[in-house]
Automatic annotation (TrEMBL):
GO terms for biological process: protein folding. It is found in: Cell inner membrane; Cell membrane. InterPro entries: DiS_bond_form_DsbB/BdbC, Disulphide_bond_form_DsbB, DsbB, DsbB-like_sf. Its main location: membrane. The lineage of its organism: Bacteria, Pseudomonadati, Pseudomonadota, Gammaproteobacteria, Cellvibrionales. It is a multi-pass membrane protein. One of its GO terms (cellular component) is plasma membrane. The keyword Membrane applies. The chain crosses the membrane at residues 9-29, 41-59, 71-90, 144-163. It comes from the Bacteria. This is Disulfide bond formation protein B. Residues 1-10, 63-68, 163-164 are cytoplasmic. Belongs to the DsbB family.
Length: 164
């Protein structure tokens, strides 16, 4: 324990932050009425994955090796999510003529396209992902999510480094 905060408490904090981020995402979707683009869905998967692993680490309360394992797996989820968030931010900053064409809604893709094509579209995004529909302090949702993933990476790296 360094600075008075144990790794277990940090893992609990990571889980709480991920749960809060998902609660806010669901609020924006169901209360505010924002539609969810493919890259947003992909980022949600990695926020949920990070949160679940961190929660399991918090509940389990393992010794040092276990803290590194939980921290490492959560770091992997956060790192991949950070990559998708960065791609999303990149898509939003493309000139209009370079934005990929908009794709069909997810429900339609799941019904008509092979799963591999649907998965590819979820992982690469489309023109819908380039639209900025909401912002906070001048930052779009993907920019805020990128900041969240970076913060999670810093905390999880700290957990791994301290678990010796």
């Amino acid at each position: 324990m360094i600075g008075g905060i144990s790794n277990r408490v940090l893992l609990g904090g990571v889980a709480l932050i991920c749960a809060s981020a998902m609660g806010f995402a669901l609020y924006l979707q169901y209360v505010v009425g924002l539609s969810v683009c493919p890259l947003c869905l992909t980022q949600r998967v990695f926020i949920i994955g990070t949160g679940i692993v961190a929660f399991l680490g918090f509940v389990h309360g393992p010794a040092m090796l276990g803290q590194r394992v939980y921290g490492g797996i959560a770091l992997l989820f956060s790192g991949i999510g950070c990559g998708f968030a960065a791609r999303h931010v990149w898509l939003q900053h493309l000139p209009p003529e370079e934005v990929p064409a908009c794709g069909p809604p997810l429900a339609y893709m799941l019904e008509t396209l092979p799963f591999s094509e649907t998965l590819t579209l979820l992982l690469t995004g489309d023109g819908n992902c380039a639209e900025v529909v909401w912002s906070l302090f001048g930052l779009s949702i993907p920019e805020l999510t990128l900041g969240l993933f970076i913060a999670l990476i810093v905390v999880l790296t700290t957990i791994i480094a301290r678990a010796r």
